[in-house]
Amino acid sequence: MVLLAAGGTVLLVLKANTDLLEPKPKEPPKFPELIEAVWFGDLEKVKELLASGADINVQDHHGWTPLMAAISTAQFSSIEPENPI
Q: What's the CA gap between 35 and 17, in Å, rounded?
């Protein structure tokens, strides 16, 4: 990139850098594994992830937590306690 000043006007000249001219496509955001398991109702995967120490308060790129995903997709078995009081 080169800046040229001519008569009080600054011109920006791009040299051999087409990345600035052609934006790269964005990769879709990756969801945390626990949220994905809850979203798809994979209760065994949810149990496995929680047993291995997955963060129950993890958030995706929209700020959603596993609890919000479970409620949104009616996956109540993902959030029901196994031994209710």
A: 39
Alpha-carbon distance 46 to 28, whole Å? 23
Domain segments of the chain: what residues? 29-85
Return the CATH class of domain 29-85: mainly alpha
Residue that is written with structure tokens 């011109």 in the block: 11
Distance CA 12, CA 69 (A): 47
Rounded Cα gap, residues 64 and 74, in angstroms = 15
Predicted confidence (pLDDT) per residue in 8-58, tens digit: 455 455 555 555 666 677 777 788 999 999 999 899 999 999 999 999 999
In 3-state terms, what secondary structure has residue 45?
helix
Return the bridge partners of 76, or none.
none
Long-range Cβ contact pairs of 72-75 (< 8 A, separation 24 or more) = 73/38, 73/39, 73/41, 75/38, 75/39, 75/41
